[in-house]
Each structure stands twice: as structure tokens, then as C-alpha cells.
TrEMBL record:
Belongs to the PMEI family. This is Pectinesterase inhibitor 9. NCBIfam families: PME_inhib. SMART domains: PMEI.
Length: 204
């Protein structure tokens, strides 16, 4: 993980835990909460593996913490992949024109994905403080729209490497990393939707 990404995650997750007014449950309770929550995602094993590393920063049965942490991790990993792809272009100067253009487009759309995920993390935090149903639903709609767009950005990057003309080491390296990020983002979106559904029924 890139240093800047690590710093962001530490700051975000530290802030989350400092704002918590409840005691942190033991690890076994947190693990059960994560495993149960991850069943709502498309890639449960990946979800559990991704979030377990930050389990102690998540309050027990707090779906907002879980979704917000998942978004922060997704953003961090998307940024890492964008940096990796950018470095790849400098280390391998003999790309074919189609490869170069696909990589250039991929870097751009991954940058858009990072921006949208960053917006989503902040907006989800604001949604958690909403006192009216309309305000909560508006903010959650923004989050869902932005995360969906981020997932589309990541898929768009993969589309640029489709076809036999892009076979080889470059395609395999980039595809492997971008697929991982897309799956992490998909899981984050599922957790966002789960939080929105559960929280909305609590409003009068």
C-alpha cells in the first residue's frame, strides 16, 4: 500500500473510533458481525478478508462504520492501482499505441473513481448525522450514485484491455489489480445499500 494511502486510512479510521461513544466489543464479536454483514455482498470471502484487518476500528453492529470503512479501503486501493499503472508506463516504454491509449484512459478513469469514492466517504459521514428522513435519503442517494459511478469507472478501465490485441503481461498485470479493486468497490456498495435500507426504516 502506498504511504499516502496508509496515512489516509489511519487518519480516517482513527477519527471513526475516537468519535465512537460505545466500547469496542471483543474480536470474536466483531468477526461475527463482519462475516454476517458480508453475506449481503457479491464477494463475501473478499469482504471478510478486506474488513477483518480493520475490525477493531468498527463499532459492533454499526453498519455505517462498516460501510464507511469499506469505502475508505476501496478508495485507497483504487489510488494504489492508478499509481501502479502510471509507473508501469514509465517502466515499459515500448507499448503499442493501443496499449498506451488504453493505459492512459485507465489512469484517467481510476482517478475519477478515487475522487468519487472520496466524496462518498465524506457524504456517508454526513448522512449518519441526518435527523430527517429526507436529508438522510438525499445524502445516501448521493453516496450510492457516486459509488456506482466509481464502479463503472473501474469497469471502463477493464474494457480498454479487452480483445486478443491486448493479450500479454501488461493486460494480465493491470486486469488482476483492477478486478480486485472493482470487487472491493462492489462489496462497499452492497454495504452502503444495506446501511441505507436498515437506517431508513428507523425514521418516522
Amino acid at each position: 500500500m502506498e504511504p499516502k494511502n496508509t496515512i489516509f486510512l489511519v487518519l480516517f479510521l482513527s477519527t471513526t473510533i475516537l468519535q465512537s461513544s460505545s466500547a469496542i466489543p471483543n474480536r470474536s464479536e466483531l468477526d461475527r458481525f463482519i462475516v454476517t454483514s458480508c453475506q449481503t455482498t457479491r464477494y463475501p470471502p473478499l469482504c471478510v478478508h478486506t474488513l477483518s484487518a480493520y475490525a477493531t476500528m468498527i463499532r459492533h453492529k454499526n453498519d455505517q462504520d462498516l460501510a464507511q470503512t469499506a469505502l475508505a479501503i476501496s478508495m485507497s486501493r483504487a489510488r494504489s492501482v492508478a499509481i501502479f499503472v502510471a509507473k508501469l508506463t514509465k517502466q515499459t516504454p515500448s507499448f503499442k499505441r493501443r496499449e498506451y491509449l488504453a493505459i492512459k484512459d485507465c489512469i484517467e478513469v481510476l482517478g475519477n473513481s478515487v475522487d468519487r469514492l472520496g466524496q462518498s466517504v465524506k457524504e456517508l459521514g454526513r448522512a449518519g448525522h441526518a435527523v430527517a428522513s429526507e436529508d438522510f435519503m438525499w445524502k445516501m442517494s448521493n453516496v450510492q450514485t457516486w459509488v456506482s459511478a466509481a464502479l463503472t469507472d473501474e469497469t471502463t478501465c477493464l474494457d480498454g484491455f479487452s480483445g486478443r490485441a491486448m493479450e500479454g503481461k501488461v493486460k494480465r498485470l493491470i486486469r488482476l489489480k483492477v478486478v480486485h479493486v472493482a470487487q472491493v468497490t462492489s462489496n462497499a456498495l452492497a454495504l452502503v445499500n444495506h446501511f441505507a435500507e436498515k437506517r431508513s426504516v428507523k425514521f418516522p
